[in-house]
Design brief:
alpha/beta; Rossmann fold; elongated; binds zinc ion
Length: 1013
């Protein structure tokens, strides 16, 4: 693998960005055949009259500005005048209809700062005259306006550079000022303070000056307007000085963890004593202009730090006192060492998290009341953090006698995430399996199940498949379901797919003869196999929870199966069905059932994990809230245990309320933040640029047009470098090897759209508008993209063709790729408008610049108020994005949602609770009727259970409670209706069948009443 320094990458991306800027305003041209107003989208100022005639008001001035300017607060220091310079070019058409650019016009004015509330306009005549002398044009001019705004404290000065040309079209000029710029000298100013929000003490709220229709660069008393707003984001440093000498290697922790963990804790305490001391907080208060309230908030935050110290310290005590915890922790580290990853050590925060959460293994009852959220910069390694805890729990389970069954079910909101994460999970479990075997720990193999709700994997392999179902007799069928690229045991590309007819298993088999896996990999992707073998860890999509209302075999995941098949390799058995007369899910099996191999209560899983919790909002969140309750109540009723919930979130806005609504639990976050947001203990900002954010507000052209221009420019530049038409080695002092690498990592552009419509328009435009040498190869990664296409696109990105011209050049993507896609080769993104939520903005842009520095052009839909607002404070928006995150809209008190979930809430109790109690199955109306007549199911008791499982409150939830009662009433009435034609219990539901996926709800249907902060 070729390496390249960060410095060279930065030099290169700065060059790319400046080339785009230059071409966007036309600084690289002095002659054109086309009308320049349609070619350039930066640096233009249109005639004020013309913009006014558009009749769009403020919006018009944002879409096609007639001025640029600067706003700043006057400082106490007395300055009588400012020095203002305005500069621009004009384009003039000659007799051959060729447009030519004039020399630069530059006008300088010494302007008295107006006293109280006055306005000054200056320079119109001088500029008019200057232009006329050089060009003969008589109606092109501009002026400087200075306004003093005395409404606030202190007074604000607004300096604008306005195009005052006539609005008519002229024979040989368009009246537009190009490459316009305004600079101000001697602008003695003081900063604005962003409004104080909760948590403000952590952030620098100062803004030196605001741009008007542009951005500003400020240095001391000098201010200049710029066309692009650029804000850098720095790479987090997880291993700063206070942590450098602490050995947190997998090896070290697998041998003697105690001392190492203790030194981590003492470093944390030492750091905290310094950073969170009262003296220090008072010092900050002075330095950053904290109010008393902010100081108070900071002092409270110090307690959160102290709590975290306690939890870690408690974890260390457990290691010391509990032999099995110690052993599990060591074995987990040994497994990580086995992972074959290119790192061999934990980041300190990961160990902090592990220690803080060890208690959840021993004190299950009280820990289950808390949801622990990992909140960390994307890419910080949270997946491995979870895995560390899950593996520790898996070993601990085995050592405590849980010899089979599910330890953790890890759920992701989107399918693409699962794909990439699956390999990482598989690798971790394989590593742990090797260690389990070496240490002769009894029980089933550690295994992984892939449990997804889309059409990606089959629910079962039917003996007689219908159209579209997997055919066991089709030799090629297994290949359609190859989900692991590499063998998790030997990490080689040696996986073959196979269908094992004898055991009725779809198998990933490693054909490497040296591989320690031996036989089929413990990796299950067919739902039925997951129920039969109950993998140690299940990964999948959230919507799969819907199965609970439909599938009696899911009982093994949340509770316990019914028994175990006598036939070797068949696994657990469930309720008898016509297809499975003895309850074994292997077709045609006639073997007897034997008792479960371990105590029923041990089957309850220890953890449910939820990645990207912030995405569980609106209808999806509301529906899931009910299903979470259902999972909890069934697990508790069957096994007397509750799962602990672990999650990650990109945002902490209103998280306590959000977690309460979703899970009916309290929330706790790890890690707590430092006093200043960029200097925490667990991570601090390094000086390495990770990502550059560049705000663009295209002037006088459509956003799509500007995007076409940018893509064209970027693609032409790379092609010219590949073809050696640009001597980039010379320009940037690079070697040929550097250039190859740069072409590799900056040759593919991502266009990110928030709506499908935007993306489709872009796709069409890419096909027709981008004129570059050779083909422009494009691919899509959206919710609409077929699964196999996603896989092949990911593969092409990861392993690009050798010839640049054959590679993928442009990827159009939607929020589907904003989660968990780690592709080092994607480093340039063009974003079509600011996404509706800040968390989507943060997540999606985090897809570029993961390993190498990247950049994002944020194209503002400047006509929209929200985009315009963000454009004005773009630097702070990037720097402090977390604070701009909106609260998550969610409620569980929706009758409309209950209408969708009630069938599952009621019917799942029949298949999970009642059927196992009955001697017979309860699959038909006749049988269920008899069961009810025998007084084995009591209507009011069932209603009570459902109300309790949702934790409804008789005072606030009266309408929901009455809906549940009514539903059950009709259900029983239907059941007893002698004239009814119902055959199956689910048909008795007055609200229809249980949902097949949690996404059955219209995603965008607004839910009222639940906005939280
Ligand atoms: Zn292998
Ligand atoms: Zn069997």
């Amino acid at each position: 693998m070729m390496m390249i320094s960060e410095e060279k990458c930065l030099k290169f991306i700065d060059w790319l960005v400046s080339e785009v800027e230059v071409s966007g305003k036309g600084a690289d041209l002095d002659q054109l055949e086309n009308d320049p107003s349609g070619v350039f989208y930066l640096g233009k100022i249109s005639p004020e009259e013309r913009v006014a005639l558009m009749g769009l008001g403020d919006r018009g001035d944002r879409l096609e500005p007639c001025s640029i300017g600067v706003r700043f607060l006057l400082s106490d220091e007395i300055s009588k005048s400012i020095n203002v310079e305005a500069s621009f070019h004009l384009w003039i058409k000659n007799e051959e209809k060729i447009w030519k650019k004039t020399d630069l016009f530059k006008f300088n004015f010494e302007i008295q700062i107006p006293s109280y509330k006055n306005s000054i306009s200056i320079g119109n005549e001088k500029i008019l005259k200057g232009i006329k002398e050089k060009t003969g044009l008589e109606n092109v001019s501009a002026e400087i306006r200075v306004d003093r705004n005395t409404l606030g404290e202190p007074d604000e000065l607004i300096v604008t550079f306005v195009n005052c040309s006539d609005s008519e079209i002229y024979a040989n000029s368009d009246g537009i000022l190009y490459e316009s710029k305004l600079t101000i000298n001697n602008a003695t100013h003081k900063p604005y303070y962003l409004e104080a929000l909760p948590d403000s003490f952590r952030y620098d709220r100062r803004i030196e000056a605001y741009g008007i229709n542009c951005s500003v660069y400020v240095k001391n008393k000098y201010i200049e307007t710029t066309d692009l707003t650029i804000q850098d984001k720095y790479r987090p440093d997880f291993q700063h000085d206070a942590l450098k000498d602490i050995d947190l290697s997998f090896k070290g922790l697998s041998e003697a963890p105690l001392e190492k963990c203790k030194s981590l804790l003492s470093a944390y305490k030492k750091w905290g004593d310094k950073k969170w001391s009262d003296d220090k907080l008072h010092e900050y208060a002075g330095q950053y202009g904290w109010s008393d309230i902010m100081l108070e908030e900071a002092k409270n935050a110090a307690h959160e730090y102290e709590e975290e110290v306690k939890r870690i310290s408690n974890g260390i005590d457990l290691l010391q006192k509990n032999e099995l915890i110690m052993k599990s922790f060591k074995l987990m580290n040994e497994s990580m060492l086995n992972l074959g990853a290119n790192y061999n050590s934990w980041r300190p925060f990961q160990v902090g998290f592990l220690l803080a959460n060890l208690n959840s293994l021993v004190d299950k009852e009280s820990e289950a009341n808390l949801v622990d959220i990992v909140w960390f910069a994307t890419g910080g390694g949270k997946t491995e953090t979870y895995l560390g805890l899950i593996l520790t729990a898996a070993f601990f389970d085995r050592l405590k006698g849980k010899i089979t069954g599910v330890t953790a079910w890890s759920r992701f909101p989107l399918r693409m995430l699962s794909l990439q994460q699956t390999q990482r999970f598989a690798n971790a479990l394989a590593a742990a399996e090797i260690i389990r075997k070496e240490n002769k720990i009894s029980g089933a193999k550690f295994s992984l199940g892939f449990y997804v709700g889309s059409n990606a994997t089959p629910n079962s392999i039917p003996v007689e498949p219908r159209h579209g179902q997997p055919d066991p007799d089709d030799e090629n069928m297994p290949n359609n379901y190859k989900l692991l690229q590499y063998c998790p045991f030997c990490h080689k590309d040696t996986i073959k797919m196979d269908f094992n007819r004898i055991l009725w298993k779809l198998e990933h088999v490693c054909v490497n003869t040296e591989c320690p896996s031996q036989g089929a990999l413990p990796f299950y992707i067919v739902d039925d196999e997951i129920y039969r073998f109950l993998p140690t860890v299940i990964v999948g999509t959230l919507d799969k929870a819907a199965v609970i209302g439909l599938q009696s075999s899911m009982r093994g995941i949340i509770g316990s199966p019914h028994g175990f098949c006598e036939a070797n390799g068949h696994g657990h058995t469930y309720a008898k069905r016509s297809r499975f007369p003895n309850g074994c899910l292997v077709p045609g099996c006639k073997a007897d059932k034997k008792p479960l191999p371990m105590d029923e209560n041990l089957y309850g899983m220890s953890f449910r994990l939820q990645d990207e919790i912030h995405l569980l909002k609106d209808s999806l969140g509301a529906v899931d809230a009910h299903y979470e309750s259902l999972l909890d109540s069934l697990q508790f009723e069957i096994t007397n245990t509750r799962a602990k919930i672990l999650g990650s979130s990109a945002t902490l806005a209103g998280y306590e309320k959000h977690i309460d609504i979703l899970y009916k639990r309290e929330a706790r976050v790890f890690p707590t933040q430092g006093v200043k947001i960029d200097e925490g203990f667990w991570s601090t900002d390094s000086s390495q640029v990770m990502r550059k954010y560049i705000a663009i507000s295209p002037r006088g052209v459509t956003l799509e047009y500007a995007v076409d221009k940018i893509i064209t420019k970027l693609q032409i530049l790379i092609r010219e470098i590949v073809d050696k038409k640009i001597n980039i080695e010379g320009i940037l002092e690079l070697t040929q090897e550097d250039v190859d690498k740069l072409v590799d990592i900056y040759g593919t552009n991502v266009i990110y759209g928030n709506t499908l419509r935007d993306l489709e328009a872009t796709m069409r435009s890419l096909e027709t508008q981008i004129l570059v040498k050779g083909e422009l190869n494009t691919a899509s990664l959206t919710g609409q993209t077929a699964f196999d296409e996603v896989i092949s696109t990911l593969k092409r990105i990861e392993e690009p063709e050798i010839d640049y011209y054959e590679r993928l050049h442009v990827i159009t993507a939607s929020s589907m790729m904003s989660h968990g896609v780690d592709l080092d080769r994607l480093n340039i993104m063009i974003m079509l408008g600011v996404p509706l939520t800040t968390s989507e903005f943060i997540q999606s842009t985090a897809r570029v610049g993961r390993k190498y520095p990247g950049f994002v052009f944020v194209m503002h839909k400047i006509g929209r108020e929200r985009d315009a607002g963000i454009y004005r404070s773009f630097n702070k928006f990037i720097e402090q994005g977390d604070r701009f995150v909106e609260p998550i809209p969610i409620t569980r008190r929706s009758r409309r949602v209950l209408e969708r979930t009630i069938a599952a809430l009621a019917l799942s109790r029949i298949i999970f609770i009642h059927e196992p109690k009955s001697e017979d199955n309860l699959t038909t109306v006749l049988k269920l009727r008899k069961y009810v007549l025998d007084e084995k199911l009591d209507e009011s008791e069932e209603v009570e259970k459902i109300i309790n499982s949702l934790e409804l409150d008789i005072n606030i939830d009266a309408s929901l409670i009455s809906d549940i009662k009514n539903w059950y009433n009709i259900f029983i009435r239907n059941l007893n209706d002698p004239t009814g034609t119902f055959r199956f219990p689910s048909e008795l539901s007055p609200t229809g069948q249980p949902m097949r996926s949690l996404r059955d709800v219209e995603e965008n249907a607004p839910i009222i009443g639940g906005l939280i902060k």
